[in-house]
Design goal:
Layout (H helix, E strand, L loop, with lengths): L16 E4 L5 E5 L3 E6 L4 E7 L4 E6 L5 E6 L10 E6 L4 E7 L6 E4 L3 E5 L3 E6 L5 E6 L9 E2 L7 E5 L5 E6 L4 E6 L5 E6 L5 E6 L4 E6 L5 E6 L7 E6 L5 E6 L3 E6 L2 H17 L5 E4 L29 E3 L2 E4 L4 E7 L3 E6 L4 E5 L5 E2 L1 E6 L1
Parallel strand pairs: 16-24, 20-25, 26-30
Antiparallel strand pairs: 1-2, 2-3, 3-4, 5-6, 6-7, 7-8, 9-10, 10-11, 11-12, 13-14, 14-15, 15-16, 17-18, 18-19, 19-20, 21-22, 22-23, 23-26, 27-28, 28-29, 29-31
Length: 366
């Protein structure tokens, strides 16, 4: 066990990437020499692997032994155009997927693998590793992609070829929705656990928009700040009650979502899965106009009253925490806790106050 991130046999400046697993209780640190996986709260080293080279991306699959790796850094452990599926039980690769261009991102479900390159996303089945789909995207150097993790819904969201549009594909129904979400290029995306809600942010980085993936309606608009910033991450709470974002402004913002959002969209999703014909594709929300008469809406929407104007008024953050250094990754944890890790190697555990405001610092590891 280590008591500090400085106990890693690598300089903090050599940290290449930090990521979190699907249940937000473990995070991985990629370095110039390999990778390590830690328990988020309380902080504890789970494993460390010396790969004799740099790892740019680690994608965990919940808490199992299968891990996706992408080489990177000054001396990559693997070529950057290869996606490595690593079995930590045997501590060696069990699969290599090669591409013509560098892999920019990867997402794992228990049944699917998503490999992101500059202008495409390749989708494979888990187990037999068959290529089942190739999604064309806008130029995507940041590897922007979001997927659902609910076993009953297979949803992926990614930038579409038209700037400011998002592709949402439902693999269960074999249909695709194209939603106009932003005026500028999309730099960050998130889906909630079931895939019923979509959050997007553009290159400007001042506003996050929440959409229904079923209808394409704009449901809520959240304002991070007035000044432009590069958005690094957007994440929903497991319950969809909260959403967090991190940016180049060295702060974490937590937003409280409308109480009705989760109930409305979960009902819509169940109804949608039961009735939508296969192979459907269509553009939605071309003017980002919210229509309260949309037939997919339930009566619960009427309780929001005057909020249903052409654009939602922006809602500012419910809670916030300022860090010493740019936040690389943040995740909701148990008991309303935030786990924050910066690129400088600092690990913060903060409590979200029940009535909002500035988060309470529980613990810091430097």
């Amino acid at each position: 066990m280590v008591d500090s991130l400085s106990d890693y046999p690598v300089e903090k400046s050599k940290i290449l990437c930090i990521s979190v697993n699907q249940c937000y209780d473990c995070f991985a640190i990629c370095t110039e020499t390999g990778f390590a996986i830690d328990k988020a709260y309380p902080f504890k080293l789970i494993l460390r692997r010396d790969m004799k080279g740099g790892i740019a991306i680690v994608e965990m699959l919940f808490k199992c032994n299968i891990i996706a790796l992408i080489g990177g850094g000054t001396n990559p452990a693997f070529p950057s155009n290869k996606l490595i599926i690593w079995d930590d039980h045997v501590e060696k690769p069990v699969l290599e997927l090669s591409f013509k261009t560098p892999v920019r991102g990867v997402k794992l479900r228990k049944d699917l693998i998503f490999a992101v390159v500059d202008k495409n996303i390749f989708v494979y089945t888990f187990g037999d590793y068959k290529l089942i789909d190739v999604l064309e995207t806008a130029d995507n150097p940041r590897g922007v992609i979001a997927i659902s993790y609910d076993a009953d819904s297979k949803v992926v969201a990614c930038p579409y070829t038209d700037i400011g549009h998002c592709r949402v594909k439902f693999f269960d129904k074999k249909n695709t929705k194209i939603i106009k979400t932003n005026k500028k290029a999309i730099v960050a995306l998130a889906l909630n656990y079931s895939g019923s809600l979509l959050a997007t942010a553009s290159a400007k980085g001042t506003v996050i928009r929440i959409f229904s993936t079923i209808t394409g309606d704009l449901l809520q608009e959240l304002r991070r700040g007035a000044k432009a910033a590069l958005m690094n991450q957007i994440s929903f709470h497991r319950s969809s009650k909260y959403l967090l974002c991190t940016s180049s402004k060295e702060a974490v913002h937590v937003f409280e979502l409308f109480d009705s959002l989760t109930k409305i969209d979960e009902c819509e999703y169940a109804d949608y899965i039961s009735r939508t014909p296969a192979d459907e594709i269509g553009y939605l929300n071309d003017n980002i106009v919210l229509d309260p008469t949309t037939k997919n809406k339930t009566a619960a929407l009427s309780s929001l009253g005057s909020l249903f104007s052409k654009y939602f008024s922006s809602h500012w953050g419910f809670a916030k925490y300022k860090t010493a250094g740019e936040v690389k990754y943040c995740a909701f944890s148990e008991k309303n806790l935030l786990i924050i890790v910066t690129m400088e190697g600092k690990h913060y555990t903060c409590e979200i106050p029940s009535k909002g405001g500035y988060c309470f610092l529980r613990n810091t590891i430097c």
